[in-house]
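[audit] Reproducing an earlier prediction to check determinism. Same input, same settings, fresh worker. If the tokens differ from the archived copy the diff job will pick it up downstream; this log only records the rerun itself.
[audit] input (324 residues):
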Amino acid sequence: MTTPGRYPTIFPEVTAIPAAYRQERIDQRCYLIDGELRSWDGPCQEVLSPICVATAAGPQRVNLGSFPLLGEKEALAALAAAVKAYDQGRGVWPTLPVSGRIAAVAAFAAAMRDCRDEVVRLLMWEIAKSRGDAEKEFDRTVAYIDDTIAALKELDHASSRFVRADGVVGQIRRAPLGVALCLGPFNYPLNETFTTLIPALIMGNTVVFKPPRPGTLLFGPLIKAMRDTFPAGVVNAIYGSGRATIPPLMSSGAIDVFAFIGTSRAANTLQKLHPRPHRLRLVLGLEAKNPAIVLADADLDLAVSECLAGALGFNGQRCTALKI
């Protein structure tokens, strides 16, 4: 059992943290709507790190800063910007040639690489990832963007070919679906958010996305890159409580694609708010009961090691963690 007198040996003092990994307070007051970083002077959410440091009063969670608590008005403004930019498929972005959309996404990826150190540091402080895990999440996300670009190039090349089926010759063309609402989880706030946002964008859809509340500050430098690389209204970022911002978006009926990573209960509740749920496209990544199967001839030492890593990696907070 730890006594108060021993806290300094468990929790470091701020001065003991290497300068390269200390995090200055960030009071984020901007959000992205219609190609503009709009200023916010309303209520804000304080961000407390899960990481504690030693102080004279005992261990204290580090206050990282704050971000805007937007409401229904701002959420609907973001939606209106996305609807306008899509313009029933006649907007600049959905009608842009594939090469143009690829160039814009590639430009964003390049700008994102310039933010690597800042985003990695915020991943460490906001959700208590180790440096290695934070770097891995960032690098995997950039690699995912590159792979998505490569996949679209292949799809576009294949679309120029003729396909024969049952005596019919034709070409297969892919078209955007409309306005996508993308919501990612707290445990991989960068990677999982972008695994829905980037494919939606590159195929010509316009997007409204809300970062998870634990993992919001790290999007500050990224929305600036989005503003600089995509046409106005193509990407719109809203912050705040999901209960305050998401139901108005779903109830509007203007969301064409709902991309959500979280619990099935939340997904069911939100999709039922849509006035035309039969027309709503769903891209869902929900919870799972992931089993580990150990066969009779398995190396038990290796199996135990792998099961422990699979169950307890990132404190057991991975959606793919072993549960059975």
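[audit] rerun output stored. Observation attached for the diff report: The radius of gyration is 22 Å.
[audit] end
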